Amino acid sequence: MKNFKLKIVTPEKVLFEDEVLQASISTTMGQITVLPNHIPLVSQLAPGEVLVRFNGTDESLMAVSGGIVEILPDQMVILADTAERAEDIDEARAEEARKKAEEVLKTKTTDAEQFAMFTALMEKEMARLRVARKYKKRGVRTGRPTNQ
Amino acid sequence: MPQASRDIQRRIKSVKNTKKITKAMELVSAAKMRKAVSRVLSSRSYSDLVWDTVLHLVKKIDTNKHPFFIEPKKVKKVAVVLISTNRGLCGSFNATLVNKVIKSIEIHHPERVETSVITCGTKGRDEARRHNISLVADFHKEDITASSEDIRPISHMITKDFLAKKYDKVFVAYTDFMSSIKQVPHVKQLLPIVPEIDERLGHIKHGKDKVEKISVDSFAEFIFEPDTRQVLDAFLPRLVEVQIYQSVLESEASEHSARMFAMRNATDAAGDMIDDLTLAYNQARQAGITGEIAEIAAGSAALE
């Protein structure tokens, strides 16, 4: 099957750029899996994981914290606020960050805007943690660009 | 030793010390510049892609629906985000930037519009005050902007004020990093968004990775999830933020390279000065010796 181009970028760096077979992302409307020749789509990204398959066996797992995704038939661009590869996330530290976010959410929420901000932070940390655990458990068969 | 040559020797010493300092500053700036340049380059691809997406989107939506796209009928109030430096010793960097801002205000709005500036960097703030431009906010500028989150307060403020109709137009003034020897001050419109290909910001055509532009005209359908309005509401403030972030990074890279060159020039000038002074010192010393010999000769001649 034909592959499509996938780019995952954050303001700080280009995290991922390669030809892939399929990509699963979580949007605010739910999880979707994108295959080549997808109908043009622009969607809001929810904090969560991005699972990319290169072919039958190689895959790559990443955590993103929201942003925008633009899908065209032969390319897909993820404009993420922050993004990390699963193997780069330190599980212990992610857990710590999540706890901190949770604590802050409990104690320091004074107004709606702040609450929204901390909830977003919390969601982001949850997503990172989820990705880190999944990576450990499944031992994602890292694809070409990650294990070199 | 006569007084003249002693004075010269003292000056040589002080110039030598200055030269050491400027040399050290040059090296520090060079290191900072390298860092800043690599950051500019790595964030350019994001802002490029954001722009591409915007350009795709504007063909598929009615731009008059969203407040970020609506051109004001009459421009009365303008805000300029002025990105300057915290420290001096970088040549004419800040002066040219401020002059450019003033000039562009005059050119684009001769009918005296109310202009306010939002500064980022202390030098820009001082210059703005000197030119009697009203200052609405001054943001602290980090030496190295770590992430786009650092500039979120700025973008948050201007988008909020713009939507509240406090300003009719918002510009950003920064210094474009063309190369380590060329930096150009530039004033760019942030809001309302002009959906045109932006040739300047982060677009010093990095020839090699120029991607062929995809035309979206052929796609009859373009889905927005959850809906157009929500996507734009989430996306457009992000666009503003990215542009400011990119401008800050460009300015940072420019600042450090400007300072590096200013310091290199200072070091060279100090070297020239030392050469001149050494020559003058040797002449003075030789004149002293000649004078003493003449005195001795005259003295002995008088005795005979």
Mind explaining what this structure looks like?
- Chain A is α+β, with helices and mostly antiparallel strands and about 150 residues long.
- Chain A is about 30% helix and about 40% strand.
- Chain A has 2 domains: about 5-85 and about 140-145, Sandwich (ATP Synthase, domain 1), CATH 2.60.15.10; about 90-130.
- Chain B has a 5-stranded mixed β-sheet with strand order 3-2-1-4-5, sandwiched between helices.
- Chain B has 5 helices and 6 strands; from the N terminus they run αβαβαβαβββα.
- Chain B has one domain (about 25-260): Pyruvate Kinase, Chain: A, domain 1, CATH 3.40.1380.10.
- Chain B has helices at about 5-60, 95-110, 120-130, 150-165, 230-304, and strands spanning about 75-85, 115-120, 135-140, 170-180, 180-190, 225.
- The longest helix of chain B is centred in the last third of the chain and has 76 residues, at about 230-304.
- In chain B, helix 1 runs antiparallel to helix 5.
- Chain B is elongated and about 115 Å long.
- The interface of A and B includes residues 12, 29, 40, 43 and 67 of A.
Encode the helix/strand succession of chain A as letters.
EEEEEEEEHHH
Number of helices of chain B: 5
Query: What's the number of domains of chain B?
Result: 1
CATH architecture term of chain B:
3-Layer(aba) Sandwich
- The CATH topology of the largest domain in chain A, please? ATP Synthase, domain 1
Count of extended strands of chain A: 8
CATH superfamily of the largest domain in chain A: F0F1 ATP synthase delta/epsilon subunit, N-terminal
Protein chains sharing the most extensive interface: A-B, 25 and 30 residues
**What oligomerization state is this entry in?**
heterodimer
- Provide the helix percentage of chain A: 25-40%
Top-tier CATH class of the largest domain in chain A: Mainly Beta
The parts of chain B where pLDDT drops under 50 for at least 5 residues are 202-212
Give the biggest sheet of chain B.
Answer: 5 strands, mixed
